[in-house]
Design goal:
By secondary structure, this protein is α/β, with parallel strands linked by helices. The chain is built from twelve helices and twelve strands. It folds into two domains: about 200 residues, NAD(P)-binding Rossmann-like Domain (Rossmann fold, 3-Layer(aba) Sandwich); about 80 residues, UDP-galactose 4-epimerase, domain 1. Strand 2, helix 2 and strand 3 form a beta-alpha-beta unit. Helix 5 packs parallel to helix 6 and helix 7 crosses helix 10. The longest helix has 21 residues. The radius of gyration is 19 Å and the shape is globular. It binds nicotinamide-adenine-dinucleotide. The site of nicotinamide-adenine-dinucleotide has 28 residues, from strand 5 and strand 7.
Length: about 325
Amino acid sequence: MKIVVTGAAGYIGVPVVARLLAAGHEVHGLDCLRFGGAGLLGSYLTGRFTLTRGDIRDRRAVAEVLPGADAVVHLAGIVGDPACAAEPALAEQVNLDAIGTVRELAADAGVARFVFASTCSVYGHCDEPADESSPLRPLSLYARSKADAEARLLTADSDRMAVTVLRFATVYGLAPRMRFDLVVNAFVAQALTTGRIQVFTPAAWRPLVHVADVADAITTVVQAPAVQVSGEVFNVGSADNRQLADVARQVASASGPGVQIDITPTSGDQRDYRISTGKLTAATGWTATRTLAGGITELADALSAGVLDGHPALEGRRAA
Ligand SMILES: NC(=O)c1ccc[n+]([C@@H]2O[C@H](COP(=O)([O-])OP(=O)(O)OC[C@H]3O[C@@H](n4cnc5c(N)ncnc54)[C@H](O)[C@@H]3O)[C@@H](O)[C@H]2O)c1
């Protein structure tokens, strides 16, 4: 297949591109390179990858990458509550307004499949594990923009293109475009730099999933028969629903002696949700295979070895 991946240079995008290439597909990335594109260098070596540097708000750039594509994996976005709060107008344009354009141009180009990256943040706050039919309670502009984008995508005419919405749990793990604003990655970075892990909402639950499992899930959905996934919403997570204090304890014990956990309860972030992931498994057979323990170890090993020295989140890293 020829697959267009928007947001190809991102934290999730780079592993997705690599996974799709490993499965034998041809991949055309579209990304404005907000965080650079060095993570994609290895993908060029396959001879089946190309990138267009462009903005998904630019119809011409989007139209240019679509001819001949069988599928679009739409990952581009302004990601996370702080990033959206910092640039709300941009977040609305990119996360919501551009979606209609990308979808319409893809359908016009004869693209058969469209996979959209949403987030389990749309559940906001719930007492029981949320499944795909649970009520949405988005608590931030980021989550609201994703919930609205989902609704727009799923209500548009579905005859011309099979649309699938994937709601990712909170992602963790090593990837070439590293993000340390994600809770597991942040805790490991804090443990190895300051020796203190800051926890603001210790009792809050988060569903967690390794970035490599997300890449596998996306690949599985793109390759699945359309009838199994068309018009559907799927949670993408693992068996790891954890309270944040529990995550901090696990990171502390894996990071060597002397790491402290500072619990400073605040009321800023009200998110508190768990998910169930059985629907995607039932539809496609996919399940997450990586463990939180393994993900923490690989992060700690790479950071301790200095592989990511120079990253701003790691300033002052303690000697191993
Ligand atoms: N990482 C997570 O924990 C997580 C969880 C749930 C959902 N998601 C979703 O997965 C997707 C990818 O997230 P990520 O963690 O890789 O984020 P990221 O910020 O690392 O990647 C986003 C990519 O989109 C690109 N981009 C941003 N605006 C663009 C524009 N206007 N035109 C073209 N490209 C643009 C950026 O340059 C970047 O490479 C996002 O849609 C996000 O909402 C991520």
